[in-house]
């Protein structure tokens, strides 16, 4: 800053100057905020877009998917992978694994459980020695009927819907995901 | 005056550079330079190195669900020095966490969080939190099994806290993991967090310079003044030496582990034994103790309480003096937290060491990792990640099967029933069924022109006898192999079966069992069911010792390559091994 400029600055401002400066200050704030809003407002919608009504970022696998022959399932739980065509944002991939399920027959009754642990989402395993489902993460344990027996899981294993197709010869499962860490089974 | 000096003079006249550098280095350290002051400098060095390494990694890494794993495997296994730089970056985060904790402990011991340095204490705590956020976001980016599953648990926790779900879905870009999860984590990891950390670091350094080091409380003002040393070069030398030690440790760790681990590509259908990085194990362990609705104690209340305690430390500490003796309760509080963290971590490690299930899972995970990375060397298909398995001949066989064989045969319910089912093909149960109900769709019921074979009922052939015959058939199969496996059948039963075959059964009317014999439009049982036999059937089943004139199956010789036929035969053969 040159000396002249400094000199002018130190002059006692008149009242007119005061109002003008007040205006300038507000102006700087208002213009600045306006400029920021140009980006901030759309940025919020942009970032929160996956939460918006009717938006589905990932889709596919909502139908029943054949996982095997009905008679291959029995008293020992069998893990089946669920394959489906899946859209993940901009990619569409055919026939990819979207999840897995444990299928077991108990007293003539078939059960299909999602392998996703209701606690925090690790994959539940079958432990032959104890004949239970166990989660390798925080040691939740479940009976073969899915009942919660030990560990931090807030609810039993999640039953998946299934269908016995072709006169009961094939088993088809609809794979869904449920909210974790809560007592109720709620679809996400 | 040398040219260099002249140049500096010229530049200084226009920028004031010399004064700036002087200002930066000219700093008194009251009480003298000390080793205990090095932690901040070491962290700054580590951060700058992480930035450089991160930029280098970003020149090969591709953030998308299809590319992330493949590009990381490429860096790790193909690019010259890739494993080393990635390893430094990975271990660098671990070392940073350790040094952050040391820094924090030193500050607490010295009482450097007290007035007037409260704001600096807070910026420091924030930066510590950011370091953890860096670790969490970076962990997912390789999109391998470990990162995928461990991060699922972390975001899962987020989803369970009050108002957490919208936060969780915003962070992961939707209800499920996918492309948007990676791009968001990537943007956070490489832009948002580094920029925030840099700003905070600037503030932290500025405030540090404003208030100076916190010298030992035991020294009087006079002593401090007398022992004062300049930052440059006394303290800086110690700082740089500490950085060198840290760097050496880092290089040693990286060499010893051949860089960072990279597991198989993320597979949402697998059961991977998920574990967080070691410095989060205490939180992981804590989760085990609180059931259902009480989980919030482990996820929010305890960690939140600890964070609040640390932030409020300048206000909690009301003691007159900075001397450690006078601040017993505060030091005990921080000490208790540290003990808790150490104990929980130890418990988690011990629990895993004694958990066979976990250990087995880990072995399997390492095998998968090795296999997939081998397969990735051929190039990962554009579907990415788990599609790398398609490079495996067996998976190629599955694809060929679907296209070529499934129009007539089925495996596990996928395929048609116009020819025998190949689900568990040739295992004991399958063979038993073929004898008991050859006309069912599982066997020859759907195959044109195969009406001849008659069922053997239990009355004519009791179960024990049938079992013996099956063992005999398995023995015949083994004989056809180059290296017969005597453990594949029960020799004693097989002998009984052979006798039954000779003396009682009608099977020999149509089926020969001699090597080199011809059938009558029926397969000879010597060597039936080996890989080679299956491959021959695929090539051309109308040979005299196979199905002869009864052959219905098209000959695939010439239509499929030798490798494809071999892979298919392996695949079909493997169906019978499950029992
Ligand atoms: S995720 Fe299964 S017990 Fe925690």
UniProtKB/TrEMBL annotation, chain A:
Enzyme class: oxidoreductase
Taxonomy, superkingdom: Bacteria
SUPFAM superfamilies: ISP domain
EC numbers: 1.10.9.1
Cofactor(s) of this protein: [2Fe-2S] cluster
InterPro entries per record: Rieske_2Fe-2S, Rieske_2Fe-2S_sf, Rieske_Fe-S_prot, Rieske_Fe-S_prot_C, TAT_signal
GO-annotated cellular components: membrane
Protein name: Cytochrome b6-f complex iron-sulfur subunit
Native source organism of the sequence: Enhygromyxa salina
Organism lineage string: Bacteria, Pseudomonadati, Myxococcota, Polyangia, Nannocystales
TrEMBL record, chain B:
Recorded GO CC terms: membrane
Bilayer topology: Multi-pass membrane protein
InterPro entries linked: Cyt_b/b6_C (IPR005798), Cyt_b/b6_C_sf (IPR036150), Cyt_b/b6_N (IPR005797), Cyt_c-like_dom (IPR009056), Cyt_c-like_dom_sf (IPR036909), Cyt_C_IC (IPR008168), Cytb/b6-like_sf (IPR027387), Di-haem_cyt_TM (IPR016174)
GO terms for biological process, alphabetical: respiratory electron transport chain
Signal peptide start-end: none
Domain Cytochrome c, chain residue ranges per copy: 392-477, 492-576
Keywords recorded for this protein, A-Z: Electron transport, Heme, Iron, Membrane, Metal-binding, Transmembrane, Transmembrane helix, Transport
PANTHER family from the UniProt entry: CYTOCHROME B (PTHR19271)
Protein name, entry field: Cytochrome b6
Naturally occurring in which organism (per UniProt): Enhygromyxa salina
Taxonomic classification: Bacteria, Pseudomonadati, Myxococcota, Polyangia, Nannocystales
Gene for this chain: petB
């Amino acid at each position: 800053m040159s000396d002249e400029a400094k000199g002018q600055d130190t002059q006692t401002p008149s009242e007119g100057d005061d109002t003008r400066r007040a205006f300038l200050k507000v102006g700087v704030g208002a213009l600045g905020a306006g400029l920021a809003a140009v980006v901030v407002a759309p940025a919020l919608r942009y970032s929160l877009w996956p939460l918006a009504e009717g938006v589905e970022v990932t889709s596919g696998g909502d139908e029943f998917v054949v996982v095997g022959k009905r008679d291959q399932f029995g008293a020992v739980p069998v893990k089946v992978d669920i394959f489906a065509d899946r859209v993940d944002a901009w990619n569409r991939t055919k026939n990819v694994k979207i999840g897995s399920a444990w299928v077991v027959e108990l007293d003539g009754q078939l059960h299909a459980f999602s392998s996703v642990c209701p606690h925090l989402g690790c994959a539940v395993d079958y432990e032959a020695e104890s004949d239970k489902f166990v989660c390798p993460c925080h040691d939740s344990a479940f009976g073969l009927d899915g009942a919660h027996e030990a560990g931090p899981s807030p609810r039993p294993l999640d039953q998946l819907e299934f269908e016995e197709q072709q006169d009961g010869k094939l088993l088809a499962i609809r794979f869904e995901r449920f909210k974790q860490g809560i007592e109720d089974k709620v679809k996400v | 005056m040398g040219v260099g000096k002249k140049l500096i003079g010229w530049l200084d006249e226009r920028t004031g550079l010399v004064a700036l550098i002087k200002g930066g280095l000219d700093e008194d350290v009251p009480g003298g330079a000390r080793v205990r002051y090095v932690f901040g400098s070491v962290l700054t060095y580590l951060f700058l190195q992480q930035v450089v390494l991160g930029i280098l990694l970003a020149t090969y890494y591709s953030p998308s669900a299809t590319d992330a794993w493949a590009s990381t495997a490429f860096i790790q296994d193909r690019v010259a020095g890739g494993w080393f730089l990635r390893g430094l970056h990975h271990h660098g985060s671990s070392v940073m966490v350790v040094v952050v904790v040391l820094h924090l402990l030193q500050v607490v011991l010295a009482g450097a969080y007290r007035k007037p340095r409260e704001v600096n204490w807070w910026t420091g705590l924030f930066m510590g939190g950011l370091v953890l956020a860096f670790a969490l976001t970076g962990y997912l980016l390789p999109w391998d099994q470990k990162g995928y599953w461990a991060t699922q648990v972390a975001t899962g926790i987020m989803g369970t806290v009050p108002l957490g779900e919208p936060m969780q879905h915003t962070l992961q870009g939707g209800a499920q993991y996918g492309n948007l999860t990676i791009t968001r984590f990537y943007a956070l990891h490489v832009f948002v967090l580094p920029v925030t950390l840099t700003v905070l670091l600037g503030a932290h350094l500025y405030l540090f310079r404003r208030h100076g080091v916190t010298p030992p409380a035991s020294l009087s003002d006079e002593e401090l003044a007398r022992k004062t040393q300049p930052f440059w070069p006394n303290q800086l030398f110690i700082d740089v030496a500490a950085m060198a030690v840290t760097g050496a440790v880092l290089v040693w760790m990286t060499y010893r582990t051949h860089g960072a681990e990279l597991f198989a590509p993320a597979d949402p259908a697998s059961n991977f034994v998920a574990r967080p990085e070691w410095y989060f194990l205490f939180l992981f362990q804590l989760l085990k103790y609180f059931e259902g609705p009480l989980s919030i104690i482990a996820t929010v209340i305890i960690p939140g309480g600890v964070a609040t305690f640390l932030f409020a430390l300048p206000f909690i500490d009301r003691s007159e003096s900075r001397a450690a003796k006078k601040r017993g309760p505060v030091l005990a509080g921080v000490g208790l937290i540290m003990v808790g963290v150490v104990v929980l971590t130890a418990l988690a490690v011990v629990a895993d060491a004694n958990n066979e299930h976990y250990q087995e899972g880990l072995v399997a995970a390492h095998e998968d990792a090795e296999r997939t990375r081998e397969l990735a060397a051929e190039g990962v298909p554009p579907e990415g990640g788990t599609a790398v398995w398609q490079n495996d001949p067996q998976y190629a066989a599955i694809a060929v099967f679907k296209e070529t064989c499934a129009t007539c045969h089925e495996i596990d319910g996928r395929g048609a029933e116009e020819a025998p089912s190949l689900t568990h093909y040739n295992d004991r149960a399958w063979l038993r069924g073929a004898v008991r109900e050859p006309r069912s769709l599982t066997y020859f019921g759907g195959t044109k022109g195969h009406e001849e074979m008659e069922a053997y009922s239990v009355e004519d052939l009791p179960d024990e006898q049938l079992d013996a015959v099956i063992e005999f058939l398995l023995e015949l199969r083994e004989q056809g192999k180059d290296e017969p496996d005597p453990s594949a059948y029960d020799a004693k039963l097989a002998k009984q079966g052979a006798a039954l075959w000779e003396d009682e059964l009608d099977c020999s009317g149509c089926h020969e069992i001699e090597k080199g014999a011809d059938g009558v439009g029926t397969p000879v049982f010597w060597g039936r069911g080996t890989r080679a036999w299956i491959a021959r059937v695929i090539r051309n089943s109308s040979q005299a010792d196979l199905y002869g004139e009864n052959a219905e199956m098209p000959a695939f010789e010439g239509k499929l390559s030798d490798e494809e036929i071999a892979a298919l035969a392996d695949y079909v053969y493997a169906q019978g091994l499950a029992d």
